[in-house]
Automatic annotation (TrEMBL):
<protein>
    <submittedName>
        <fullName>Uncharacterized protein</fullName>
    </submittedName>
</protein>
<feature type="region of interest" description="Disordered">
    <location>
        <begin position="1"/>
        <end position="21"/>
    </location>
</feature>
<feature type="region of interest" description="Disordered">
    <location>
        <begin position="68"/>
        <end position="111"/>
    </location>
</feature>
<feature type="compositionally biased region" description="Basic and acidic residues">
    <location>
        <begin position="89"/>
        <end position="100"/>
    </location>
</feature>
Length: 111
């Protein structure tokens, strides 16, 4: 990856001071990191963050907290192509096994 000399920082607000409520703000900030890298000219996708060190800073605000995520990409080889979707091929779980949405149940989906 060509962004080793760059640091990307994204900040989002949460209207709660309770950590269990910060998920949306954290996920939006994290997604913005790869968006910024792409805007800087690097062909990265969200999987580029796997195995990377992300830094979190939480600042108190009047109505909640400000969540700041930052990322300085490490030098790495080119990323593999994005994982195919169900239109491109079979769906697989994280272990590489075929995904069974019923969990092995014979009752059908959602039962």
């Amino acid at each position: 990856m060509a962004t080793t000399d760059r640091k990307f920082t994204a900040t989002e607000e949460s209207t709660s001071k309770h950590p269990h409520d910060w998920g949306r703000a954290m996920s939006v900030a994290i997604c913005r990191l790869t968006d910024m890298a792409r805007e800087a000219g690097d062909p990265v996708h969200d999987e580029a963050l796997i195995g990377e060190d992300l830094h979190l800073f939480v600042e108190d605000t009047h109505d909640g907290v400000s969540i700041t995520m930052s990322w300085t990409p490490r030098e790495r080889a080119a990323l593999p192509p994005a994982t195919p979707t169900s239109e491109d091929g079979p769906e697989h779980g994280a272990s590489g096994e075929r995904f069974d949405p019923t969990g092995g149940s014979t009752a059908g989906l959602g039962q």
